[in-house]
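Shift notes (night). Ran CarD-like/TRCF RNAP-interacting domain-containing protein while the centrifuge was going.
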Amino acid sequence: MLNIGERVFIADYGAGYIQDIVSSELYFIKDKYVNIYLLLDNMNFMIPIDKIKNYKIRNILSKMELETTLFTILSYPDYIESNWNNRYRTNKKKIQSGNTLKMCQVIRDLYYLKRENMLPPGETKILERVEGMVASEIMLVLELNMEQALSKIRNLV
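Came back to this:
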């Protein structure tokens, strides 16, 4: 990992690619940073190399893994927590895991609540964010733009 041009996924931030590895000196202290361009927010994210293990960074999925994972959105939710606060915490943990399967479960569950007109405004923002994170990975794997990636997700719902 950590090669220029490599496609990665960072938990809580989405997918992007490594633009470069930069050396910087501040107060006579030299540090190396990995500069990652994030597709979801169109921003550069610089992580010190010596702290890279503090971030949940993984390679993006293969096409086959992605297609299999996206089918989770088609399934019916097993159980949805009725208490909003508990559901929020559970969904936040799934999103922070960086696991695309768990993020697809969140999308599936929140879209179910949306169809039933039971989705609170706070969870609408979570749905938009997790949708964007999964869409950013779809963009890299299938080489689509953001609108096409989002429509791929929404067509499954």
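Strands lie at 7-10, 14-26, 29-38, 43-48, 57-59. The chain has two domains: 7-59, 63-156.
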